[in-house]
Design goal:
The complex is a heterodimer of chains A (about 90) and B (about 300). Chain A is mainly alpha-helical and about 90 residues long. Chain B is globular. Classes of the chains: A mainly alpha (about 90), B mainly beta (about 300). The interface between A and B is large, with 52 and 57 residues.
């Protein structure tokens, strides 16, 4: 098996560093979730324009192959929050 | 819990912190881009002050380094801007110094940043796997060699490729006025950092210079656009396959189901064998017998 790590004992400093940075990361994550929620209205407009483009210019199937998507293939928005961060 | 979905994150206005982990000495500062809370594996932006120096030494975990600005003197070699290194664990690098300072990306893939002073390799080190290349000067841009493919105008330079997992580290660029009108997701992790320029994705908006993402599998991203182009460094942990579609509202669970359905259509014999219910399919690679997985279905029930 590929040797990606040589086993070692984590130092107390290393454990503290991981804990401290994990706490900071959790704050960053929560800020990202909020920022992405704040973008919801603008994103809805982007989605409308995306649907316009894939019906006219076409959907990128592979490299420069495009397909115009007919009306009856467009998805309908489900009744649940539109999440983009998981 | 591994690393969470960090997307988008722009580090340019975030202050550096002084590196306090043992061994790294004074004059090294960092920002965490993403971190595995269990192992300490992380992706960092690192600033080396002018005059920084480090004796010969090794890391317990494999490490990747990209010089984004400035230069590093590593033994008798100079790593200029654009230099990329993949360092297997236990491989000793000669003394490092930064006479005029440098700004780097550093990826510690299986544990927290570690440095052990040593002018010899660890007995388990696999030096023959080391990669050291100037990504800007030594490799040419080529089309992304995947199918289905990204749209014309997205080019790639492969920096490191793992023949076992097909995970890879790469530079990618979008040419000015790049458009790709589809939504993509992958069955692998994907990470990216904008070295220069701005791109746009329908879910996350604009990602400028210094923009970053760590994206777990199955998460929608795209459509894609770049007005003036961008250059970025990217990484995956296994083979990258583009699952394209045009439904912006699907969940990771729905995307995962769809990927499995595609696997059934496209690799039906393999799919049927892997999911065999007799509990005795033991994937064994005759080329790599130690990369063996002994999986019983009961283990997952």
């Amino acid at each position: 098996m590929a040797k990606n790590l040589i086993e070692y004992e984590k130092s107390a400093e290393a454990k503290k560093w991981i804990n401290d940075e994990s706490a900071e990361q959790e704050k960053r994550y929560q800020q990202i979730v909020k920022d992405m929620d704040d973008l919801s209205d603008e994103r809805d407009v982007w989605v409308e324009k995306f649907f316009e483009r894939i019906q006219t210019r076409g959907f990128n199937v592979h490299y420069d192959n495009r397909r115009q998507i007919p009306d009856d293939e467009l998805p309908t928005r489900p009744d649940r929050p539109f999440k983009v961060v998981f | 819990m591994g690393r969470p979905h960090i997307e988008p994150y722009v580090e340019t206005d975030v202050p550096f912190r002084r590196m306090t982990l043992p061994g790294f000495g004074k004059g090294m500062h960092y920002k965490v881009l993403s971190l595995d809370s269990d192992t300490g594996a992380c992706s960092l932006v690192v600033k080396f002050e002018s005059g920084y120096s480090l004796p010969p030494g090794m890391s317990y975990t494999e490490m990747e380094l990209y010089v984004a600005e400035g230069s590093l003197q590593v033994g008798d070699k100079t790593f200029e801007t654009g230099h990329y290194v993949w360092l297997p664990p236990g491989v000793s690098l000669p003394a490092i110094s930064s006479p005029n300072g440098a700004r780097c990306l550093m990826f510690y893939n299986y544990g927290e940043p570690s440095f052990v002073e040593s002018d010899e390799d660890h007995p388990r080190a696999e030096r023959h796997k080391m990669v050291s290349v100037n990504a800007l000067e030594d490799i040419v841009w080529g089309p992304a060699n995947v199918s289905p493919s990204v749209a014309p105008g997205c080019f790639v330079k492969v920096l490191k490729f793992d023949p076992l997992t097909h995970g890879f580290t790469f530079m990618y660029c979008m040419t000015p006025n790049f458009w790709q009108d589809n939504i993509s997701y992958h069955d692998c992790m994907e990470e990216g950092y904008h070295v220069w320029g701005t791109s746009w994705m329908m879910q996350f908006g604009y990602l400028p210079t210094g923009g970053y993402f760590w994206r777990p599998p199955w998460i929608n991203h795209g459509a894609f656009q770049s007005t003036y182009g961008c250059i970025a460094i990217g990484r995956t942990d296994s083979q990258l396959h583009n699952y394209f579609h045009f439904n912006p509202w699907t969940t990771p669970e729905e995307n995962q189901e769809r990927a499995a359905a595609q696997l059934y259509r496209q690799k039906r014999n393999l799919y049927e064998w892997v999911r065999a219910q007799d509990g005795h399919n033991h994937p064994h690679d005759f080329e790599h017998p130690h990369y063996h997985e002994h999986v019983h279905h009961d283990d997952h029930d």
